[in-house]
Amino acid sequence: MAGLKRGSLPVVDEAPRWEALDHHLIQVRGCRICPAVEPPPVAARPQTWPRLMLVGQAPGPKEVVEQRPFAYTAGMRLFSWFARFGVPEEEFRRRVYMCAVARCFPGRAPQGGDRVPSPQEIANCAPYLEHELRLIRPATVLAVGQLAIKVFLPEPAPLQERVGSRFEVSRGEVTFEVIPLPHPSGRSTWLVRPENQERLERALALVRGSVGWRETFLG
After folding, report:
1. CATH label, 41-218, candidates 2.60.120.200, 3.40.470.10, 3.80.10.10, 3.40.50.1000
2. Which residues of 88-126 are buried (b: 16+ CB within 10 A; e: fewer)?
3. C-alpha dist (Å) from residue 95 to 5, 9, 15, 135, 215
4. Which residue from 76, 139, 186, 195 lies 20 to 30 Å from 2 (Cα-Cα)?
5. 174-181 vs 167-171, strand pairing mode
6. How far is Cα 67 from Cα 70, in angstroms, rounded to an integer?
7. Do the Cβ atoms of 138 and 97 come closer than 8 Å?
8. Nearest to 53 by CA among 158, 154, 133, 160
């Protein structure tokens, strides 16, 4: 990715950035804009300044209680992918900024499973993510699932045309690489097909070789 700005600026003192992030997370946790969701919003904080962001779809009920993204069965599969590279779950959480397109549990869908956030709910949460991108200035963003992928790559495309590739995305002055991943939910049948498993393997190789991963776990 020639010319990638990698999202960062020289920083002498990160204390003001941490203060700004903590203030932002307080605002996120206090949000009650959407009447149909189940608050409070999930707003987790890493322990080291992140160069890598992971963006999912929306928290489930367990995530809301624990205030930890991907805290249930989908998380077990997700973190098993990264454990292949010697990074256990707690180390990943300590170093990576994890968030979602929608920050509250949307509730259950009538047909089973979690309800997909509505377009208005997504729009209500969008300013939080945009602010985080400008504040954190990540080198790499892992977009997990179609809903998160569409935030960064709005042109319609099937998952098989996204997973296994890397994209350069800009938000104002911030430019970063986006690596799409399939959603790890057990309800998803996408990974059943061998060719999609191969796409996932290519995507994970891109994750391991990404600027954000190297600076986070290998630097």
Report:
1. 3.40.470.10
2. ebeebbebbbbbbbbbbbbeeeeeeebbebeeebbebbe
3. 21, 19, 17, 16, 10
4. 195
5. antiparallel
6. 10
7. yes
8. 133
Query: What type of residue is 135?
Result: L
Q: Which of 87, 58, 93, 67 lies closest to 185, judged by CA?
A: 58
- pLDDT tens for each residue of 6-38: 454 444 457 889 999 999 999 999 999 999 999
Q: pLDDT tens, 76-94?
A: 999 999 999 999 999 999 9
Enter the pTM of the model: 0.92
Structure token digits, residue 77 = 């599969």
How far apart are alpha carbons 78 and 72 in whole angstroms?
10
Residue type, 199: R
Beta-strand relationship, 52-56 and 97-100: parallel
3-state secondary structure of 186: coil
User: What are the sequence ranges of the domains in the chain?
Assistant: 41-218
